[in-house]
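ok trying this again, last paste got cut off
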Amino acid sequence: MGSASCISVTNMSKRNYSRFAYLIGCVAFCFALLADAQVRPEDEVLERVRFEQHLDAALPLDAVFTDHDGQQVELGHYFGERAVIIVPIYYNCPMLCGLIINGLLDSLKQVTFNPGEDFEVVVVSFDPTETPELAAANRNAFLAEYDRPGTEDGIHFLVGEEREVRRLTDTIGFQYEWVDELNDYAHASGVVLCTADGRTSRYFFGIMYAPRDMRLGLVEASENQIGTAVDRIMLFCYMYDPASGTYGLLIHRVVNTAAATTALVLGSFLFVMLRAEKRQISSNSGHSS
C-alpha cells in the first residue's frame, strides 16, 4: 500500500509540474507577442495619428485646391453663407475612408437639412497624388447613394497639393502619415463642422455620426440660421461634449425647465381659479342686494 501511495503522489507531482510548465510557457508566449507588438513601427505611427480638437480655429480660406471638375478653387469659396462639413479622407483608401463616407451618408439621410441650401459638404483628399477624375468618380458614387435630387451643388470633392492640404489638416487637428510597411496611410477618422465664416465648430469622431448630433451640430454651426424652435429647445437641453464629440443631455436644465413650466401652469391655474371665485362672490353679492 505504501509503495502504491508513493507512486501515486509522484505521478501527481509530475502532472502538476507539467501543467505549471505549460502555464509558464503560455504566459511567456503572450509576453513575447506583446513585446513584438510594441515594437511594430505601424503601431508607433498609430500613436501619432490623432484627431485633436482645435475648436474655433480659423481655417486657411485662401488654401487652393482642385475640385471634381478640375477647376482650381480656394477653400473660402465654400464659405460665407452656410455651415460647412469638412471630411478629410483619401479616395483610394482600402477601408477606413469608405466607412467614414458611409457613416456620413447614413447620418445625412436622416437629417432633413439639404446640402446647397442649409449647409455644404466639402470632402478633401489628403493624398497629393490623387486626381480630380478620382474625386469626380467618388462624388458621383456619393450622390447616387445619397439620392436626394437638388443637393448636387452643395457637395464638393477636392484634391490638392501637400502643402495646401497640410495647411487645412494642421488647422483642424487632423493627423496622418504614410507607412511604408503597410504601403498605406495611417490616419484618424471623423468630420468637422465649421461656421459660415470659416471657424471650426464641432468635431464628430469615428465612423458613425448620430443624426441628432449632426442636426444639432449644424444648427449650432449655422448660428441658428437653420432649424426650428424645437432645435433651439434641444440645444438648450443638450450640450456638446468635446471629450466624446457628442451631445449629452443636461439633466439639470431639463429639471429646471420642467420645474419652471410646472410652476407657470400651477400659477396660471390658481390665477384663473381666484378670478372665477371673485366673480362668483361678486355675482352672489349682487343677487343678495
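PB: full thing came through this time. The radius of gyration is 31 Å.
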